[in-house]
Structures are given as C-alpha cells and as structure tokens.
Design brief:
This protein has a single domain, classed as Aminopeptidase (3-Layer(aba) Sandwich), CATH 3.40.630. With about 160 residues, it is of the alpha+beta class. The two termini are about 25 Å apart. The protein has five helices and seven strands; from the N terminus they run βααββαβαβαββ. The protein is globular. It has a seven-stranded mixed beta sheet, with helices on both faces.
Length: about 160
C-alpha cells in the first residue's frame, strides 16, 4: 500500500530510508525540513508499506527550472521547490533491497507521474544514477547530457519525460 506522507513520523521514516540506503547522515533538522515540505506538498512524499512496515519511499516536488548539476550540488534539493513550477522533480524513489524488482518502485513512479499531472507540470524530471538509467528509459524518460559525478552517489545524468 502506498500512502501520502502526512506526519512528522512519516518524515522520520523517509529520512531514515535516506540514511540507510544512501549512507546519508540524517539529523533532527533534516527530519524537520522533510516535514516542512510534506506540509507544503504532501502528494510528492510517499511511503509504501507491507503489513504496516515501511518498505519504500519517495520525495518529489515541482521546480521552476532544471538546474545544472553544479547548481544542484551547491544547494539543498528543496531549495529548488516552486509551487508553480512546470518541472516535477523526482528527488528519490527508494526501495529496501529485499523488496526490489517486484514492481514497488514502478508503482511509486506511476503515483508521482499522476501527482505531476494533477499539479499541471509539463515535465517529470530528475537524476538517474548510471546503473538505473535503463529503468527510467523503459518508462519513457529520455536522458539528457553526459554522466557527471554527483556527491557520493556516483555518476548521474538528467532524465525527463514530457507529460
């Protein structure tokens, strides 16, 4: 079951998944920030559960323009939030390893695409790490530019799909 995040505890779940799956250091201020943006744009903050246990989550929100990777690296992703943005930026779709390759990520992506359409965005966009690019392309996304190193996440490139 996929639910829209609503509570501070949901922000903690999303933050803890970021910490676990991406080796990010998460602090209380990070949970507070996630919760702030859950309140600003709840439909883009999703949690998938199985038997009430969180197994996947996602963060996405509208942005006004696609920044360069250098611009993006210099700021926090939420700094690009724009309630009237025409690009729907998927920051992350993260699935616990033991629940991968059974369609949960695809279901979350489909929910994010619906949210983008409802918001009136023209594009769904984001970064793809090199080993995941084929998944995005299979769903109709096009890759843009060359791969570049992004923080400790590895090689990434922009992807987008026109709605």
């Amino acid at each position: 079951m996929i639910n829209i995040a609503k509570t501070y505890q949901d922000a903690v779940i999303i933050g803890n998944m970021l910490a676990k799956l991406w080796n990010d250091k998460i602090e209380k201020s990070d949970y507070d920030l996630i919760f702030r943006y859950i309140n600003l744009f709840p439909k883009g903050h999703l949690i998938a559960r199985q038997n009430s246990k969180p197994i996947a989550s996602s963060i996405a929100f509208p942005i006004a323009k696609k920044p360069s990777i250098d611009e993006f690296s210099a700021k926090h992703p939420y700094d690009f939030f724009s309630d009237n943005g025409k690009f729907y930026y998927i920051h992350v779709i993260q699935v616990l390893p033991e629940f991968r390759n059974i369609g949960i990520g695809t279901k979350i992506l489909n929910r994010q695409i619906i949210a983008a359409r409802e918001k009136g965005c023209d594009y769904v966009t984001g970064f793809s790490i090199d080993k995941e690019l084929y998944r995005w392309e299979k769903k109709g996304f096009k890759s843009i530019g060359e791969f570049v190193e992004y923080k400790h996440f590895g090689r990434v490139k922009w992807i987008e799909m026109r709605l």
